[in-house]
Design a protein that fits this description.
The chain is of the alpha+beta class. The protein contains four helices and 17 strands.
């Protein structure tokens, strides 16, 4: 699913003429804290952008808006600064009124390359390699909590032949649930159905073989690796950054009834 949803988001309680567009219609963006209109670049450390700059892991609130194609991360009980402009206030309202909000753990390695790069080069650090990318990873369970793993091809450059959880990048215009459904179908053949509410307001109902499927994000991991030039790592260039959102997907059937 790669079609872009760029319809303006109407803000409840405000003038019907008030409309907010995605900041970057050709990208799904990540923002942090008080900066709801400043997309995080690849190689910037998300943890360093949080208020207290936690060392390794912290609990955060994150909101994903499909209409705005934006994931926003902020500390739990976060209060925005009063110095926000009118445009920033309107964008924040649109973001939270059109998005789904969760509380999950956010972590990165104690040797996060994005953190090392920012710490080493400080204000001289240049970020010119695009935006941090969003990806998904699914713990697919049967009714007895058995977990399905998939084996990567031997021809892949990264982790060839490894047993891994299914997952992949979140496509432009997708909701988190749509990404989960697509990736599970592509990598396992399991086809989860999505039924939207009649008024399109409440949460969608996900089912597999007529039984409801539980899907919930529980953990996000900030991953960064140095760029490679001539098959060598280059440490003075911004790292490649990903934010990997981990989901628990519970199928209420025994594994024998889940053909893969």
């Amino acid at each position: 699913m790669s079609s872009s949803n760029t319809e303006p988001t109407q803000l409840g309680g405000l003038s019907t003429a008030t409309q907010v567009q995605p900041l970057m219609p050709e990208n799904t963006i990540v923002t942090v804290g008080n900066k709801t209109m400043e997309p995080i670049q690849s190689g910037m450390c998300l943890m360093d952008k949080l208020a207290d700059s936690p060392d390794f892991m912290t609990k955060v609130q994150f909101t994903f808006s499909k209409p705005l194609q934006q994931l926003h991360i902020q500390p739990v009980n976060f209060a925005p600064e009063q110095a926000e402009s009118e445009q920033e206030v309107l964008h924040r309202i649109a973001l939270f009124s059109s998005g789904k909000t969760y509380e999950i753990a956010l972590a990165h390695s104690d040797r996060c390359w994005s953190h090392v790069f920012g710490y080493k080069y400080g204000d001289k650090a240049k970020y010119e390699g695009g935006l941090i990318r969003l990806a998904s990873c699914m713990v697919l369970q049967d009714e007895h909590d058995k977990v399905l793993l998939t084996k990567r091809s031997q021809n892949l450059r990264i982790f060839p032949g490894a047993w891994v959880l299914p997952g992949g990048h979140i496509d432009l215009g997708e909701s988190l649930e749509e990404c989960v459904i697509r990736e599970i179908l592509e990598e396992t053949g399991v086809q989860i159905e999505m039924q939207k509410q009649e008024d399109d307001q409440g949460p969608s109902i996900l089912t597999y073989k007529g039984r409801e499927v539980e899907v919930s994000p529980y953990f996000a991991y900030e991953s960064s690796i140095p760029q490679r030039v001539n098959n060598q790592y280059v440490l003075n260039v911004q790292p490649v950054g990903h934010l990997i959102i981990n989901f628990r997907v519970k199928l209420h059937l025994p594994s024998e009834e889940i053909p893969v």
